[in-house]
């Protein structure tokens, strides 16, 4: 069944979009990460303009993160104080991201820029995960025990004006999570991702945050930051296609439940290896799209006929 997307200004097969949302949701449930960093590239592959794909993906991430955040909150896995600081930084970062996004739109380079950022980001994440997972699998094969990683101090954790974040198990300056939230807010606005793939490792390894609270606090931040970003996209760039986001959300909610059940019976390290390979495949496909010369170098639009 074809359906018209008013903002993207094209007709798509509704079943295909729901299936795409299902696939991304299932990957989210399987691998334990938000699917926002894959939703935008997959939409671009299908023919959705990158700017619309980014804004609509952020909308879908907002909806899909609510249930997860509520579940962690009920279990006491959310540091509300830390989350509030991250949200404050995220909102400021969203404002900065909106200025960058609008400037790129004005000079006509938004599509190419989004694609380039995704190629760099996905390659970096994919290679890092592949290297780390390969080392872990080798240790398991040889029977070696994994060494406990020591959390080292960072510039962020040494900032002045400390306060206590009890659920997070931290006594640090609120400037540290504010800066992290700001950077994630900029990336979320420009790329349409939830930011958890970046934020969770940073909070654990750079700030030393408790693992029991990091996922719930990250989801708490994602809900409010992406909601603000969706509003900014809708008002300023006018690239939020609510029909597209709704179709993605329907498939994503179902897929996440299926993926979570399947993941219970699969080894974690092999799942991470599969995710790393998937991320690199998407990055290569985006790079090919940037460099491959199309059959027709020019297109002609007839106006007023």
TrEMBL record:
Family: Belongs to the 4-toluene sulfonate uptake permease (TSUP) (TC 2.A.102) family.
GO cellular component: plasma membrane
Membrane topology: Multi-pass membrane protein
The entry's keywords: Cell membrane, Membrane, Transmembrane, Transmembrane helix
Subcellular localization(s) per the UniProt record: Cell membrane; Membrane
Species: Pacificimonas flava
Protein name: Probable membrane transporter protein
Transmembrane domains' residue ranges: 12-37, 84-104, 110-131, 178-204, 211-236, 242-262, 274-292
Principal location class: membrane
């Amino acid at each position: 069944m074809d359906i018209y997307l008013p903002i993207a200004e094209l007709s798509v097969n509704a079943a295909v979009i729901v299936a795409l949302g299902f696939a991304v949701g299932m990957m989210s449930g399987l691998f334990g990460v938000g699917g926002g960093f894959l939703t935008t590239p997959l939409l671009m592959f299908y023919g959705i303009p990158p700017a619309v794909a980014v804004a609509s993906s952020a909308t879908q991430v907002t909806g899909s993160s609510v249930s997860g955040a509520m579940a962690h909150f009920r279990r006491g896995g959310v540091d509300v104080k830390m989350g509030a600081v991250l949200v404050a930084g995220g909102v400021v970062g969203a404002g900065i991201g909106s200025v960058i996004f609008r400037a790129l739109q004005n000079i006509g380079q938004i599509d190419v820029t989004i694609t380039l950022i995704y190629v760099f980001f996905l390659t970096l994440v994919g290679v890092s995960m592949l290297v780390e997972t390969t080392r872990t699998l080798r240790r398991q094969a040889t029977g070696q025990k994994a060494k406990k990683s020591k959390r080292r101090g960072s510039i962020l954790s040494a900032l002045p004006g400390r306060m206590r974040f009890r659920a997070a198990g931290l006594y640090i300056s609120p400037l540290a999570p504010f800066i992290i939230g700001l950077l994630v807010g900029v990336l979320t606005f420009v790329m349409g991702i939830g930011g958890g793939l970046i934020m969770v490792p940073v909070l654990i390894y750079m700030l030393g945050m408790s693992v029991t609270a990091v996922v719930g606090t990250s989801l708490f931040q994602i809900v409010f930051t992406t909601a603000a970003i969706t509003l900014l996209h809708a008002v300023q760039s006018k690239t939020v296609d609510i029909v597209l986001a709704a179709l993605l959300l329907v498939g994503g909610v179902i897929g996440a439940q299926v993926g979570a059940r399947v993941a219970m019976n699969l080894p974690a390290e092999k799942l991470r290896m599969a995710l790393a390979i998937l991320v690199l495949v998407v990055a290569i496909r985006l790079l090919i799209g940037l460099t491959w010369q199309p059959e027709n170098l020019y297109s002609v639009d007839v106006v007023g006929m």
